[in-house]
């Protein structure tokens, strides 16, 4: 019995590790920390800096939990190996995990200031709006993610200085365009499942060639603003190097995504095609690239040694997590992951029926 319980606990903990996506976990905190450092001219205490990093990180986990809960019907169609559709995290359990992470994030935001709490509430509304409404409505979903990135910048600035100085404006523009771009490129990977579920993302609405055209313009847009920022601000050599590498990786990710569109063909839902593997490879580059971009802004206000340590640490941990978790989370076979829900802790109270499904997928659960 003890062996069974330990195995159950191991499986449960691993399911939550998958759910928090550790390969994406360092983006929001690093971005907020960079914004706070720029706004304050690098005058941040260790305690406030740590809280400033932790709060949006918990908020990011809450956003993932919200998306997972809202997308559980879609995941049953395309990715049944994931924690909720596989039964490793029950639907009611997932609901309370979402509530707990949301409340924790709001409490942490309140510890910083009432203004950061208000920003966190706006982020919460837009995050839920993305999962429940905007994601299914084309360009609005991608713009929503760009606004969330800009709000993260504003959060970092207010957390550090209780104001939004003029020096923060370039970060707001760069990361609005940047995260709109990365979200759009990410949607290319899931075009089949989004189409089947009725999620009208831009690639679903206009097709891959036009979606890539829009993505290219967004890439050039934030690259241009970045160049202007480098010329108008005092940038260290490390900041320039990191920004250059970030743009090169983003351009490479775009090139891989464009190449993947040339392999578009009739694919079965959930099929691990060459196009989907190439699109995932593009997104893997973006996950690293955005850490370098945030670190570049951080390096404009924080000593080179500290900036370099943060960049190396976050990128190394991200690469490690991608190596061991990313492919199996995106493409693992459901047969390898679905586990019994009537284990040693009693029967699971939920069953994977159409309850809570997207209205356009409720009749397709057996597809």
Write a structural description.
The chain is an all-alpha fold and 367 residues long. Helices cover 73% and strands 0% of the residues. The chain has 15 helices and no strands. It has helices spanning 2-19, 26-40, 46-70, 72-78, 83-86, 91-112, 114-132, 139-161, 169-189, 191-197, 202-206, 208-232, 237-261, 274-298, 304-331. α2 packs across α8 (139-161), α3 (46-70) runs antiparallel to α6 (91-112) and α7 (114-132) runs antiparallel to α8 (139-161). It is globular, with a radius of gyration of 20 Å. The protein starts with a helix and ends in a 36-residue tail after the last helix. Residues 334-367 have low confidence and may be disordered.
Measured distance between first and last alpha carbons? 37 Å
Average predicted confidence as pLDDT: 82
Outline type: globular
How much helical structure, as a percent, in the residues? over 70%
Largest sheet: none
Low-confidence stretches: 334-367
The protein's oligomeric status is single chain
List the secondary-structure elements in sequence, H or E.
HHHHHHHHHHHHHHH
Structural class: mainly alpha
Beta-sheet strand percentage? under 5%
How many beta-strand elements?
A: 0
SSE topology sketch:
Layout: H1 2-19, H2 26-40, H3 46-70, H4 72-78, H5 83-86, H6 91-112, H7 114-132, H8 139-161, H9 169-189, H10 191-197, H11 202-206, H12 208-232, H13 237-261, H14 274-298, H15 304-331
Helix pairs in contact: 2-3, 2-8, 2-14, 3-6, 3-7, 3-8, 4-10, 6-7, 7-8, 8-9, 9-12, 9-14, 12-13, 13-14, 14-15
